[in-house]
Amino acid sequence: MIGLIVLYSILGIVGLIVLCSLFYTVKQQTFAVIERFGKFARIARPGIHLKIPFGIESVVGRVSIRVRELNVQIRTKTNDNVFVDLLIAVQYFVEQENVWKAFYKLTDIQAQMESYVFDAVRAKVPAMILDDVFEKKEEIAQDVEAKLSEQMKDFGYNILTALVNDIQPDTKVAEAMNEINAQQRLRVAAEHEGEAKKILVVKAAQADAESKKLSGKGIADQRTAIVGGLRQSVKEFGETVEGVTARDVMTLVLMTQYYDMLTEIGKNSNQNTVLIPHSPGTVGDVQQQILQSILTGQAAEKKK
What region does 93 belong to: left with phi over 0, alpha with psi -120 to 50, or beta? Predict the structure, then answer.
């Protein structure tokens, strides 16, 4: 009785194992490669499938048709003898009808693609100077993409795109490039600063000229007003007081202005003005000089 129970248990386990080996599943966006006695039999699409057990049929591999990316870092030399590191990203995928090629024709797809990327980059970059490598990275990417597309098509792989993600020159070269850029920017800044100072100087000169012009006009107007006032004062004083000449009136006006000046100076206790000893009679000398200047000017006008 016990022996039968053990036998049934063993048969049940064997049956379960056989039943499980009959079924297999394939994930979405993936295809399974089935071989029978070591020979290719068929391609299984996503879903659940049956196969012959006991090693007659087996799932030998699976191929994803999703877009994958390969990153390749390459060190090469430019035409101006600068070593530079480039990071190339290649995006590729397998079409459904090319699953057999993709599985059987290559043993290591990434290693094969890296070889082609190295070949394409080292054929392009050594003919370019460092500045062109930065400016024409799209051209480098297009060359890599064209080379890979041509070569990998026979192996069942399609190249979606190739990108130059990073360009890193030697550290000392990068520092030198940054220094050149910094000096250029400093020169531009100095030029702008010089132009700004020039504008300030020109504006200051223009303002000074305008200020002097207005000041001169003000002084001229002031003197015209003074002369007019003096003329009117002399006339009115001569009409009011008999026996007073214009010279006497001018003397009185000058004396009045003299004392007004002294009064104005005395108002400020912090004044540092030094008065040279003199007598009020000096005002008469000033008067004589003023009158002489007027007479000389009138004589010159008559000669004209």
Answer: beta
